[in-house]
Design brief:
InterPro entries: AB_hydrolase_fold, Pept_S33_TAP-like_C
Low-confidence stretches: none
Helix content: 25-40%
Organism: Frankia alni (strain DSM 45986 / CECT 9034 / ACN14a)
Largest sheet: 2 strands, parallel
Number of helices: 2
Strand order of the largest sheet: 1-2
Pfam family, one: Abhydrolase_4
Radius of gyration: 14 Å
Protein name: Peptidase S33 tripeptidyl aminopeptidase-like C-terminal domain-containing protein
Length: about 80
């Protein structure tokens, strides 16, 4: 997104880039239905729901997050 003006792309549409979204099963800050709506505006977005709350990097599902992130990055290398 570096170099793009704030107006580009529209705030409701995400760029056509590979995006990994990770959501905690017990997240009360970002409701899962809203996160799912985000994936509809990004054709290459992947959404995974992991154990834990809003802070998925340090919560109970942190190992799932780490493993899923590595798999996602490896898939980019294979593409």
């Amino acid at each position: 997104m570096a170099g793009l003006l704030v107006e580009e792309p529209s705030p409701r549409a995400l760029p056509d880039l590979p995006i990994l979204l990770l959501h905690g099963t017990d997240d009360e800050i970002s409701p899962l239905p809203l996160v799912r709506m985000t994936t509809r505006t990004a054709p290459r977005a992947e959404l995974d729901v992991v154990p834990g709350g809003h802070d998925v990097l340090t919560g109970t599902g942190r190992r799932c997050v780490a493993a899923r992130t590595v798999l996602f990055l490896e898939s980019l290398l294979d593409a």
